[in-house]
Amino acid sequence: MTTLRQFKCEDLFCFNNVNLDPLTETYGLPFYLTYLAHWPEYFQVAESPEGRIMGYIMGKAEGHLATEQWHGHVTCLSVSPEFRRLGLAASLMRGLEDISEIKKCFFVDLFVRESNDIAVNMYKKLGYVIYRTVLEYYSGDPDENAYDMRKALSRDVHRKSVIPLSYPVRPEDVD
C-alpha cells in the first residue's frame, strides 16, 4: 500500500529514481530546502511499502492573501517511470488541492510543457484548463512554450480564475 506523507530532509538522498526522468526539473539542494522550510505542507511524497520514493509533489501558496490572486502553485510533480499509471500523480494533486482549500486559495495553477501531451491530458482529466500559453518559458529550450493550467477551488464561486486568456504571454509577464 502506498503512503502519502510529508517530505523529509533525508528524502533528498533517496529520490534520484524520480528525478532521472528527462521531463523532471532537478533543482539544487537549497531550492528544495527553501520549499521544505517555507511550505512543508505543500511538499509531499508517495512512498512504497518498502520505503522507496515513488513520486513527489512540491508547491506553495502565493499571491496576495486578500485578493483573488491568492492561489496554490505546483512547482514540481513527478512520478518515477516504474510507478506511473497507478494514480499517484492524481493522489498527490488532490492532496495539494486540499491544502490549498484549507489555505483559502482561489485556484491552483501549474506550468507544463506544451509538448507534454500525457501530462496535459492528465491535468485536464483532473479538472484543469489551459489558462494561457507562456512563450519560451523553459530557459534550456527556447523553442518550448508552457501552458499555465488552472483549476478553480471552492472560494472562486464564479470561476473567474480559469477564464482563459486569448493571447500568449512571455515569462516576464507571468505574475
Task: Characterise this structure.
With 175 residues, the protein is of the alpha+beta class. Helix content is 22%, strand content 27%. It is built from four helices and seven strands. A seven-stranded mixed beta sheet has the order 1-2-3-4-5-7-6, with helices on both faces. β3 and β4 (71-79) form a beta hairpin. It is globular and about 45 Å long. The relative contact order is 0.14.
Question: Could you provide a short overview of the structure?
Answer:
The protein is of the alpha+beta class and 175 residues long.
| Overall pLDDT | 94
Largest sheet: 7 strands, mixed
Beta-strand content: 25-35%
| Sequence stretches where pLDDT stays below 50 over 5 or more residues | none
Lateral strand order in the biggest sheet? 1-2-3-4-5-7-6
The radius of gyration is 16 Å
**What is the percent of helical residues?**
10-25%
H/E topology pattern:
EHHEEEHEHEE
Structural class: alpha+beta
Tell me the total number of β-strands: 7
SS field, number of helical segments? 4
How far do the termini sit from each other? Answer: 39 Å
Query: What is the overall shape?
Result: globular
Keywords: Acyltransferase, Transferase
Protein name: N-alpha-acetyltransferase 20
Family: Belongs to the acetyltransferase family. ARD1 subfamily.
Pfam family, one: Acetyltransf_1
Blueprint (SSEs and pairs):
Blueprint: E1 3-6, H1 16-19, H2 29-38, E2 43-47, E3 53-62, E4 71-79, H3 88-102, E5 107-113, H4 117-125, E6 129-134, E7 146-152
Parallel strand pairs: 4-5
Antiparallel strand pairs: 1-2, 2-3, 3-4, 5-7, 6-7
